[in-house]
Amino acid sequence: MIGINCWFVMLTFLATSIAGPWIKVNKPFYELTFHNTASTWPQAKSFCENSRSSLVQLDVSSVKDDVYDTVRSSGAISTYWIGATDEAAEGVWKWIDGTPASIDWAPNEPGGGLEENYLVIENAEKLSDYPSNHKGGIICIKVKPPDMMLSETKLTVTLYKGEKEILCMVSGFPTTTVQWMKGKMTKPSIRSNKQSRVEQKLVLNLKQLTIADEGQYKCLASNTVGKTTTSISKTVDITVPSQPSILNITTSPCNSSLWITWKPHLRGIGIKHRFRIVDPSNSTNHIIFFTTPNKISITSIVASLQPSTPYFIKIDPCLTTATCFNHYATTRNATTGGLPGPVTKTSVEMTDDGCCNISWAIPMFSNSMYISDFKLVINSTRAKISPYNNHNYKIDEILLRSQITSYVIPKVFNRKYNVSIQAKSCAGFGPESGAVLECVTDTNVPSNLQAPATKDKVTNDGIVEISINAPDESNGPISCLFIVVQVNVKRRTLSVLNKERMNKLNNSQLEDEYIAIALNTTRARQDHSKLHLKLGDRVKTTCDISGQNNASSVTKNLYVAYNRRLALTETYSIFLVTSTPTKKNVLFGASEGLLIEKPYPDGE
Q: What global pTM score does this model have?
């Protein structure tokens, strides 16, 4: 352990004590440094290696001449170590890089036998063998990187015949090893030596180049002295344009496939091509690979796409499924056929007479010539219902020719419509319109009101029993039932029945006409289809025509009826009148009249 520590201290001392060279010989491609500090063979070898150089070898004439000239100059010591030894096999001398050493020995040398295995040059230019513990000077050689120049740094291949040569010109010491590489593969090249320069020629056969030959090529030059290697490299970028062509894209109205006619570039024949079919609306990406066997264009079918959908088509050449040349991609837009898309510009509006008018336009991206029909599915129900009427759901389907893009729903009062629209082509019906249209018609008076009926005559008390059939409320809920009486007017109909006239009756402004009974429909019916009433019982009744029937109801909507006693000497026309609230007003409807003749003629 003490011996090792002492050796470490000695090496440290050596490294610091011989840091400065006696003399330097600087040449274009190498540098010689001469150190006059006496050192053993191991010390000399380690010192050079620690300074990133090597003990000098005398296997190159220029180096040998520089060493000889220097050791015989003034200031040189008697011996210097040279990088050669026969320690591995007696008498077999090798330079320290392992190559055989051809040595011009001094007379009677080598003569040390097994004891002297290391080469020394004496200041008399003699080469002799010495033992390793001899103390001699040190000659280190440091090789400089070679000089390199390329005839091209970028090349775009556009010609299809002949050859293209790219020269890698290298100068260095010792003679450099030069090779062309692409990635980790060595490319065939031609070497020629011109004086101190090496030319390594990369030859490209332009006709045979494909996109697989595109990439970065590297000229790598290196030289080694002892155990020290220096190197340099430069690159040339070679591009081989190989953009394919899309000649045509065909679609069918009856399915959603794309027929893409295309051909590869001459440089891309026989290699894979990636098809990317992209739906920009949702970034759906279909990727398919096709290979062309020759330069003739081919048609590739891309199926299972969405119908009536615009797609972005991109084709690029690939070496593998994971290595594609996106910069040579060719692009095109196309819209699939097949099922038509949803109709567009759907709208609904009320006509002047209160009907629902539905309109639409053909589906986006669809050719109108391929649309044969439009189907309307109309779901309807009563917009407003009373306790005695159900919703009355109905579904109607209407098929219209493609030239028609609007439809007026036949007028029915008190209906709420939900309408969906589908376009039809030879592939079938497309999806329903995105927004379901809604339309609501207004309420109205009952379509048919039956006249009151009676089997009795007016009693001596001035009362007669009448019956009325509960009105149909399909056209809208009825807020009030009124019995209107005309005195000594033999009419079967009420003329000009409106709110103004009813207000006059409500205020008793008409002498021969009055409201005898006012009934809230909900309270009056109580699930009876026929109502029995007494006319002339002198009972006061009221009803709110707005249908609110609460304490906060506005007074102008409250109608007051007084059931006057009937006279035996009068003739009466009895009418059933209904009130139906609408969006803007209240409408009144009237039945035909029930005529009650006076029981006794005049004078009886």
A: 0.57
Q: Are 139 and 33 in contact (CB under 8 A)?
A: yes
Query: Tokens 């029993």 correspond to what residue?
Result: 465
- Copy the structure tokens of residue 209: 């180049």
Q: Which structural domain, as residue segments, surrounds residue 118?
A: 2-143
108 lies in the same domain as 151? no
Q: Is the pLDDT of residue 171 over 80?
A: yes
251 membership: H or E segment, kind and range: strand 245-252
pLDDT band at 380 (very low <50, low <70, confident <90, very high): very high
Alpha helices in 18-57 (DSSP H): 41-50
Which two tokens mark 16? 């610091």
Model pLDDT for residues 387-436, shown as the tens digit of each residue: 777 778 899 999 999 999 999 999 999 999 999 999 998 888 988 886 67
Q: What's the confidence (pLDDT) of residue 7?
A: 34
Q: Which two tokens stand for residue 566?
A: 């009937």
Considering the domain boundaries, does residue 392 fall inside one?
yes
581 pLDDT band, cuts 50/70/90, is very high
What residues form DSSP beta bridges with 177?
Answer: 222
Q: How many angstroms separate the Cα of 363 from the Cα of each of 71, 309, 373, 574?
A: 97, 11, 12, 59
Are residues 173 and 155 part of one domain? yes
Are 249 and 259 within 8 A, CB to CB? yes
Give the max Cα distance, the chain: 186
- Tell whether 158 and 196 lie within a shared domain: yes
From residue 597, give the alpha-carbon distance in Å to each of 345, 456, 457, 566, 574.
Answer: 63, 11, 9, 11, 11
Rg (CA), the chain: 57
What is the tens place of the pLDDT at every residue in 255-286?
Answer: 889 999 999 998 888 889 999 999 988 877 88
DSSP lists the bridge partners of residue 439 as: 417
Residue type, 430: G
- Residue 433, sorted as left (phi over 0), alpha (psi -120 to 50) or beta, turns out to be beta
Alpha-carbon torsion 111, 115, 120, 124, what sign?
negative
**Neighbouring C-beta atoms of residue 106, cutoff 10 Å:** 16
What is the three-class DSSP state of 369? Answer: helix
Q: Quickly state the pLDDT bin for 8 (edges 50, 70, 90).
A: very low
Question: What is the domain count for the chain?
Answer: 5
Q: Strand pairing of 330-335 and 310-320?
A: antiparallel
